[in-house]
Write a sequence for this structure.
C-alpha cells in the first residue's frame, strides 16, 4: 500500500484551534528524561504530542513526571513530532530513524509508544507501520478521523464485525482514516495478542469521547480508563500514572 502525502489531506480537521507546526527539514526534536533511582535502562517511553504541544509544552505540564509517578525507573523521550512531520506522510519513517533505531542501538529492549490527541492518531499510524516494535501503545483521547467511517463501522455491527476490505494500492483523501486508523483498530479487535498491548484513556467531557463506543470493543475493557474532565493534559497525566503503574507491575512480575 503506497502512502502518499495523505495526512496533509485531513490535517485541516485538526486545525480548529492553536497548533505547533515545526520544521520537517530538521530531525524531530526531543528531550530525554531519565528514570529515577535504579533506572531500568531496558525500557523507554516515546511520547508523541497533541496538535498544540511540543517538548516545551509537555515539560510544562509534567508529562514525564506523570509517567515516572507510575513507573519511576523508565526513561522517557518527549518529542516535538508536530504537524510538519505528518504532512508528507513521513511520520512512521521519521519515528523509526529518529527514535526506534537509536533506542535499539542504545540497548533498550522494551519500547512503549504514547500519544495524545493528534499524537494518539500518530501512534496508531506508527504502530501499524512498525508491527512488533512496541510492547505497549498508550492512546490518550486519540483523534480517529471522520464520523462517516465510524458510522460505517457501527452499521456493520461494530468493529469486530466490520470488514475494511482489501488494502488499496494507495491511500488518498477518500480512504485515509479507514486505512491508517480504523484498519489498525480492526487488527486489534481481531487479535488478542495485539489488543492486549493497547491502552486508552480519555476525559468523560472530552469532545472526542464520542468515538469511544466505536473503538472500545477492539480493546480490553480493563485497559480503557475514562476520567473526569476534558481534552487536557491534567486528565491524561492522571491516567498515565495509573497505566504506567500497572505496566510496571506487569514488567516486574515473576517470569515476565
Amino acid at each position: 500500500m503506497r502512502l502518499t502525502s495523505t495526512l496533509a489531506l485531513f490535517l485541516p480537521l485538526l486545525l480548529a484551534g492553536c497548533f505547533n507546526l515545526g520544521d520537517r527539514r530538521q530531525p524531530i526534536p526531543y528531550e530525554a528524561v531519565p528514570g529515577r533511582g535504579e533506572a531500568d535502562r531496558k525500557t523507554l517511553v516515546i511520547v508523541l504530542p497533541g496538535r498544540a504541544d511540543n517538548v516545551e509544552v509537555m515539560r510544562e505540564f509534567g508529562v514525564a513526571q506523570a509517567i515516572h509517578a507510575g513507573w519511576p525507573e523508565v526513561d522517557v523521550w518527549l518529542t516535538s513530532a508536530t504537524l510538519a512531520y505528518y504532512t508528507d506522510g513521513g511520520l512512521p519513517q521519521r519515528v523509526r530513524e529518529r527514535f526506534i533505531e537509536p533506542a535499539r542501538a542504545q540497548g533498550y529492549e522494551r519500547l512503549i509508544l504514547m500519544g495524545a490527541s493528534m499524537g494518539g492518531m500518530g501512534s496508531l499510524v506508527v504502530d501499524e507501520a512498525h508491527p512488533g516494535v512496541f510492547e505497549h501503545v498508550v492512546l490518550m483521547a486519540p483523534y480517529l478521523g471522520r464520523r462517516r467511517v465510524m458510522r460505517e463501522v457501527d452499521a456493520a455491527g461494530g468493529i469486530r464485525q466490520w470488514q475494511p476490505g482489501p488494502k488499496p494500492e494507495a491511500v488518498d483523501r477518500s480512504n485515509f482514516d479507514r486505512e491508517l486508523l480504523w484498519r489498525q483498530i480492526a487488527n486489534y479487535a481481531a487479535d488478542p495478542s495485539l489488543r492486549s498491548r493497547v491502552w486508552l484513556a480519555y476525559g468523560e467531557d472530552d469532545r472526542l469521547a464520542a468515538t469511544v463506543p466505536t473503538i472500545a470493543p477492539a480493546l480490553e475493557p480493563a485497559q480503557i480508563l475514562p476520567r473526569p474532565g476534558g481534552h487536557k493534559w491534567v486528565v491524561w497525566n492522571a491516567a498515565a500514572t495509573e497505566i504506567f503503574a500497572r505496566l510496571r507491575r506487569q514488567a516486574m512480575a515473576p517470569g515476565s
Strands lie at 2-3, 30-33, 43-48, 75-79, 110-116, 136-140, 170-171, 198-203, 224-227. The longest helix spans residues 233-252. The chain is about 40% helix and 15% strand.
